[in-house]
Model the fold of this input.
Amino acid sequence: MNSEEHSCQCGGHPAAAPRKNAGIPVPILAEESHQCGCGGHGHHSSENAHAGHHHHEGCGCGGGGVCPRKYHSVAGLILAAWLLVHFVISFLGFWPEHYQTLISTIHRYKTPLIAIEILFIGVPLLVHIGYGLRFLLREGITLPREKHHYATATRFFWQRVSAIVLLLFVVFHVATLHQWGFHLVYKLTHWSALQRYSEGGIFVPDNAYASTVEGVSSFWNASDPSNPGNVIVVTFYLLAVLAAVYHLANGIATSAMVWDITPDDSPAANRLWSYCKVAAIGLLVLGAGSWWAFARGV
Done:
């Protein structure tokens, strides 16, 4: 019997169907079942498999019959929309007065803003990070020798690298700029080392441009722009922009595979990846511009 690879479309590594090896018979179960790389079992219909059609009946990977990568991808798409909005708002930093006007308007509605931050940023972020860490811990980051189930091994590798960069950046960004970070820790502990955050995060809505510049380009030493600490932080922000753009472009392309919109290795999947790369160029210009608006200093 020839080896038949089955996959539940959860991004895991497929397992081979039962076969004889070196004359040693291997028991064949009545129902062909396999363990997918996401920790669950997927099932194939033998008739469909021999016909060249893959029929997926859910991988049962702890997602209530829905592959966890689908939850992961939906949360990622919500965050992608937020990233685009964030880049557009930050790009207004080239015009500080317009930037201040928009920030003042947004923060005028404090209660709805908090609800939006929790429901459309906080929750999707926790879901995306939670499942992402689960996949990372199980599958690792090492560049695999064989092609990964979704897209190429190289894209798989850099998606993981960009994810780690973004995780570190999100922690730093929230901790230093926003009230949910070191300011909250200070309020709970009154730790003297965090005295800088006693009144809030570095970002101050009433002084939006100058406070954002402080958090991005003069975080370590406001009087010396060339201070090594400042250079490290501002470079980290640019690196995060690059990581976010790649992670988003590749994430959209692979999400279409997760949802069976574009089967892996199909012409449609390759076309979508080409479109994503073109869109990524435009997004990179927007993101790099939003970075430079504050990296250049006051």
About this structure: The first strand starts at residue 5 and ends at 6. Residues 175 and 284 are 25 Å apart (CA to CA). The mean pLDDT is 82.
